[in-house]
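Hi, here's the filled form for the chain we discussed.

Project: internal
Contact: R.S.
Residues: 355
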Amino acid sequence: MAVRKRGKTWVVDYRVHGKRYIRAVGPSKREALAVEGKIKGKIYEGRFGDKESLPVAVTFGELIQKYLEHFVGRRSIATETIHLNTIQSHFGSSRLLHEINRIDVEAFRAKRLGTPTMYGRPRSHASVNRELAVLHRLLARAVAWEWIEKNPASGVKKLPEEKGRMRFLSVEEAGRLLKACPSHLYPIVLCALETGMRRGEILSLRWEDVDLFRRMIYVGRTKTGVPRHVPVSTRLEETLSRLSSRDVSEYLFHWGAGSGRKGKPFKQVKTSFANACRKASIEGFRFHDLRHTAASHMVMAGVPLRVVGEILGHTTVSMTERYSHLLPEHKIRAVEMLPDWRGSSPGQLPGHQSA
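And the returned structure, exactly as it came back:
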């Protein structure tokens, strides 16, 4: 049994029947020594049982470090790290996990909502909700690792959000955009339109991920961490077949000679994409909206929502159901394709004889 300091907190570290317990006391060494004496008394009298199990003195900083090790390999680790830095800045690295309760989580939500963005604009509800989701995942891992008993973020309500932006191009607009794309951007935009893949998934594509014979793309690093296979259309197959970069780079989309970065993959195409949109007279359109365009046109063509979700890599049905509003017109078209059951007497009700 020992009394020692972890950060700013004194803890009592002891074992009973081979099981280790660490009890956090507080900033006072005297109180920690007093607690140690009480525990010794209970052990001596045989009154120490499983109900005496006390929280492990793990700090918030230790949890984040362990969590990042667990999260490594995910494509979205950069975004996750940004949110974790915000969370750690609020709660502090040395704060003990078991000291955090639901009130603290709600206070974090309120503070973030009242904190302007770096541009001085009001912070959106969606932005705060993304940070709350990361905090919930973080504390859920602490529960799984038996560092805390319950997740204090559970039950904390998300802020109401406006319905998501669902901008997508018509066929005519998409054609104008493709014509406005420079040679390096054209296959990237076409790939997004034909597959619905995310920008990061497209730009990180390697030749080893593409099977043009079977017309399939393997997406290993995804936002959700779940790999998937994406089918390749004949239009995209023809375009990718014309790319002569296998001997230059392992990546499909990369810098060329004279750039100083020959063979290295593009990290982004923001400027060239914005220029193409401006040239095509398309306003208020983001690269991610190409994904919405692909999904929307698949739904309008009658592709089942389940299949669309599988191609896009959605992990929940609700994510794909955002496109369900596009179905009514095509459902009507479907029933109009049924045969005319009335035979030669259209308009006559059953059992009714005309006068």
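Let me know if anything looks off before we file it.
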